[in-house]
Design brief:
With about 450 residues, this protein is of the alpha+beta class. It folds into 3 domains: about 1-25 and about 60-230 and about 320-385, no CATH class; about 255-295; about 385-445, no CATH class. The protein is about 45% helix and about 15% strand. The chain is built from 13 helices and 12 strands. The protein has helices at about 5-15, 50-55, 65-75, 90-95, 105-120, 135-140, 230-255, 275-280, 300-320, 335-370, 390-400, 405-420, 425-445, and strands at about 80-85, 120-125, 145-150, 155-160, 165-175, 180-185, 190, 205-210, 215-220, 260, 295, 375-380. A hairpin with a 2-residue loop joins strand 5 (about 165-175) and strand 6. Helix 1 packs across helix 7 (about 230-255), helix 3 (about 65-75) packs across helix 5 and helix 7 packs antiparallel against helix 9 (about 300-320). The chain is flat, with a radius of gyration of 31 Å.
Length: about 450
């Protein structure tokens, strides 16, 4: 039996969605909080139950994982893949790939977000059960394959064949308010109660598909399934950030308020501190002898240390997520260039994995439709992301230094290719020709 670390993937999923232990349940805020369910805050050794519940009540979670994955998927979407579909059913599937009206490019963007966070995802290529006899009826009733995402934390059991592809997959789903297992093999599928796959008494429904391959496809960021991706470090750092922010807030709540000190002269008798503490306020006057009362504040050292630690965590997350936006403090040009190169390399590697997955997806869809023709797909082989401000600075420096017009023209075309990467080839070619025309005018000018 092949095992999978469901708890690890579930933790990453909660980091991505900001749920579970990152959203502790403390009941009604108008009453004394009572912690129920799990929390990722770590309790102090001498912290009472009520105080720990109150700390969970005011805890807040800053989501670093979701923006990082969305940004990464957005870079992928800037250069959409090209497809050649040789069948009207496949063309219709590209326009509505998940039976919910979403196009394939929209579906891949959502898939990339979840896959980048976890490092692994499963894709089910399924088929409606009732098939019309004519192509027209099949198009009208949307009787062609559809896609569904399966998170790895839902996988209960899986097997692989000799080629390393999934041959048996059982994953959990909700059916009429109950948790059941949906099982796919290379020849059959069925729904059963959780338990032994060989026990036919547990099966609720099923049928034979006869594809010769399991319609559940595995995607990994690198290596074999299952794979924990590089962004899993963001999940671990997010948990530490969650605790550090809560601990700093606790320090601020307990030590921020200043205290009024009142020196009692030795000769004064009958001094009642409780009466004075209750009476002193902004509405009355304080009479004193000797040194004047003053406020004392606790040192800010502990809170400052926590703030520094939080900044270090944020910086570590920026490096792991390959964030290339300019920070508040200027980053050297070489460091920023290296960050762009690392991001481009990561995008290229991810895109090649996605191209392989889409090719296998179209092959599985063709098997469902009992057709030999499949689709031809090509994802970009390179992502030329760069800092446009730096590229413009280079162009200005070239022009001021008297570089030949051909050199300036090449740099202009480079900037156009970076800025207008999403344009089609015809529009981009018109812009390139405009640069050539401008250079020709400069050469013929008197």
């Amino acid at each position: 039996m092949s095992t999978i670390d469901n708890d690890r993937f579930q933790f990453i999923a909660e980091t991505l969605d900001g749920t579970g232990g990152f959203r502790p349940n403390t009941g009604d805020s108008t009453t004394s909080p009572v912690l129920s369910g799990k929390t990722y805050l770590i309790r102090y050794p001498r912290e009472s139950t009520e105080k720990f519940a109150r700390r969970n009540q005011v805890a807040w979670y800053r989501n670093f994982m979701k923006p990082s994955c969305v940004r990464f998927a957005g870079y992928l979407a800037k250069k959409p893949p090209t497809r050649v579909l040789n069948n009207p059913l496949l063309e219709a599937m590209a326009l509505d790939c998940d039976w919910r009206g979403n196009s394939l490019d929209v579906f891949w963007t959502s898939f990339a977000i979840t896959a980048k966070a976890r490092g692994s995802m499963l894709l089910l290529v399924d088929m409606p059960r009732n098939l019309p006899t004519t192509l027209q009826d099949q198009m009208a009733s949307r009787a062609f394959p559809y896609l569904a995402m399966i998170e790895p934390e839902r996988v209960a059991y899986y097997e692989k064949n000799d080629q390393g592809r999934l041959s048996v997959v059982a994953f959990t789903e909700n059916k009429d308010g109950e948790t059941v297992w949906r099982v796919f093999t290379e020849e059959d599928w069925w729904v059963q109660k959780p338990g032994d796959l060989t026990n036919t008494d547990l099966r609720l429904e099923g049928d034979r598909h006869g594809l010769g391959l399991c319609p559940v496809l595995a995607f990994t960021e690198e290596g074999d399934f299952p794979c924990i991706g590089s962004y899993a470090q963001i999940a671990d750092l997010s948990r530490r950030y969650f605790n550090a922010a809560s601990e700093r807030d606790e320090i601020l709540r307990s030590q921020t308020f200043s205290l009024l000190t009142y020196q009692v002269p030795p000769e004064q008798v009958g001094f009642e501190a409780g009466t004075v503490a209750e009476a002193i306020g902004t509405h009355n006057m304080l009479i004193h002898q000797g040194d004047a009362p003053e406020f004392i504040a606790p040192p800010d050292g502990p809170a400052t240390i926590y703030s520094d630690v939080i900044k270090q965590i944020e910086e570590a997350i920026r490096h792991i997520s390959l964030t290339v936006e300019q920070p508040k403090q200027a980053e050297s040009g070489i460091a920023l260039t290296l960050r762009f190169q690392e991001l481009n390399s990561s995008l290229t590697q991810f895109a090649r994995r996605m191209e392989d997955l889409e090719r296998r997806m179209w092959d599985m869809a063709s098997r469902w439709l009992r057709m030999t023709d499949s689709a031809v797909v090509a994802w970009p082989k390179s992502y030329e992301l760069a800092d446009l401000n730096m590229e413009m600075s280079v162009l200005n420096a070239m022009q001021e230094s008297g570089f030949p017009p051909e050199v300036n023209q090449a740099q202009m075309k480079n900037i156009i290719s970076l800025q207008f990467a999403t344009l089609d080839d015809v529009e981009k070619n018109d812009l390139m020709q405009a640069v050539d025309g401008m250079a020709a005018e400069i050469q013929t000018a008197p």
